[in-house]
Sequence to fold (219 residues):
Amino acid sequence: MIAGLYGIADVSGAPHRTELEVADALLAAGVTVLQLRMKHAPRAQVREVLAQLVPRARAAGCALIVNDDLDLAAEFPGVGVHLGQDDADPREARRRLGEGPLIGWSTHDLDDVRRAAILPLDYIGFGPVFSAAGKHLAAGDDRPPMAAVGLDSLSEVVAEATVPVVAIGGITGARLASVMRTGVAAAAVISAVANAPELHVAARELVQTAGVRAGPKDA
Fold:
């Protein structure tokens, strides 16, 4: 189930933290989906972190996804993949991963959303809703941030999409409620947790605001 807060373990903008620290806070808070995002990291390093996250996510009853890397996702039964426009074809991902693991796809406008309708996806990510700046801090990523799409466009996408929509881009605790009111299935956060003074406090508050309160002890 994709609902509430979609956690992303990405510390490209918070080098004082590790992916496991962020992931543990998100899992303890009760996220339903967790994505490991390590842009430009060597595959061996990503594999090492992913191997540690698999049992943690399973124990928490949380779906685990790796960003971009279909080959790596295929090494771990049950792990899904989130694909960008320039990554592997979602149809190939479904063929290789089977029906269980989640497959998501990044979209940025209504044309992308309409293309997604014929693909074997479990959800689409849509954004950046407010800002993409937090996604362009990884070493070697010198792309200019994409323009914000805004809440009105997000609402239009929710009305037209044929799969759950996950909002992403500049979503803070103060903005989260307004994002959820558009009818999205979930909202993704990166810096709102990774850069928070207290990881666990921030993760719990965001999960509560997003409307999913059941953590592992309550599931």
Q: What stands out?
A: Confidence is low (pLDDT under 50) at residues 134-139, 212-219.
